[in-house]
Structure to design on (137 residues):
């Protein structure tokens, strides 16, 4: 599915809500994330309205779990702020993490520091071990 296509909502929302309804009581579901890496596609920008509508519909149906609007791109409205850092050099990742600790931003994306929200950083790289010690400090 192309989340930047004009008919993205019409095509996606019914199927997504069917999945939420089907899996609502499953004990392994701790949160919802309808989209992953909704990068701009073929010159079309991420459809922020689509992400916001799907987030709000998910929250209307399930008020008990957090919802990430899109994992790994620009958040519109979300309960969990995450990012994907694919840096393979542990030293470079440490530099990025230290900068984020000071500025709460990454590649121009600003993350709000809000005690009512949960910040999660997902690292899919060789730098995970190096960062984990720094994050615990």
């Amino acid at each position: 599915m192309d989340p930047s296509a004009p008919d993205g909502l019409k095509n996606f929302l019914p199927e997504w809500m069917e999945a939420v309804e089907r899996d609502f009581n499953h004990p392994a579901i701790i949160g919802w994330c309808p989209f992953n890496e909704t990068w701009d596609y073929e010159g079309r920008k991420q459809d922020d309205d689509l992400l916001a509508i799907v987030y709000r519909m998910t929250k209307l149906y399930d008020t008990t779990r957090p919802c990430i609007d899109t994992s790994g791109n620009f958040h519109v409205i979300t309960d969990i702020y995450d990012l994907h850092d694919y840096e393979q050099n542990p030293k470079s990742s440490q530099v990025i993490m230290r900068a984020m600790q000071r500025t709460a931003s990454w590649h121009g994306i600003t993350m709000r520091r809000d005690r009512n929200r949960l910040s999660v950083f997902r690292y899919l790289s060789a730098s995970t071990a190096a960062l984990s010690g720094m994050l615990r400090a």
